[in-house]
Design goal:
Shape: globular
Structural class: alpha+beta
Largest sheet: 4 strands, antiparallel
Bound molecules: guanosine-5'-triphosphate, magnesium ion
Low-confidence stretches: none
Number of strands: 4
Mean pLDDT: 97
Order of helices and strands: EHHEHHEHHEHH
Strand order of the largest sheet: 2-3-1-4
Number of helices: 8
Length: 148
């Protein structure tokens, strides 16, 4: 069963969107397997966004992400990585469809509320980076109503 790393960014936390974002993943049928509020250090965030090092917006991105706590989560379910990305919407909220998280709540690419892993490989790396303590195991009783 596929897992993805989803994060509410500092602007999403400050704007009171944590419950709404968690609710969307719950309602869609995904299983919550990890969750915490963390104020990440710039060093930790530079590891998370290592692929973007060198981009002109990188320093601003790290400063934004370190400006307050984030909500770090792991969600599991069918095609979790791809479906998670489609629920977030396009990176630039001006291009995000209404009905997506960014399309409903954001306008600026540098304040786009949420993060979602872009591949299964990166999801596993991000889960290891944000949850080195490991992940709780439990049976999701709803699963029999969500899957054939
Ligand atoms: P994440 O889920 O946060 O990884 O976003 P993404 O995968 O949709 O986009 P990407 O990984 O390419 O960029 C990471 C983050 O950097 C974006 O979510 C934006 O917050 C920020 N970012 C990307 N491109 C730009 C840009 O052109 N300008 C600014 N200011 N920020 C950008
Ligand atoms: Mg990305």
């Amino acid at each position: 069963n596929e897992r993805t790393y989803i994060m509410v960014k500092p602007d999403g936390v400050q704007r009171g969107l944590v419950g709404n974002i968690i609710g969307r993943f719950e309602q869609r049928g995904f299983k919550l397997i990890a969750l915490k509020l963390v104020h990440a250090t710039p060093e930790h965030l530079e590891k998370h966004y290592a692929d973007l090092k060198g981009k002109p917006f990188f320093p601003g991105l790290i400063q934004y992400m370190a400006s307050g706590p984030v909500v770090a989560m792991v969600w599991q379910g069918l095609d979790a990585v791809k479906t998670g990305r489609s629920m977030l919407g396009a990176t630039n909220p001006l291009a995000s469809a209404p009905g997506t998280i960014r399309g409903d709540f954001a306008l600026a690419v540098g304040r786009n509320i949420c993060h979602g892993s872009d591949s299964v490989e990166n999801a596993e790396k991000e889960i290891a980076l944000w949850f080195p303590e490991g992940i709780v195991q439990y049976t999701h009783d709803q699963a029999k109503w969500i899957f054939e």
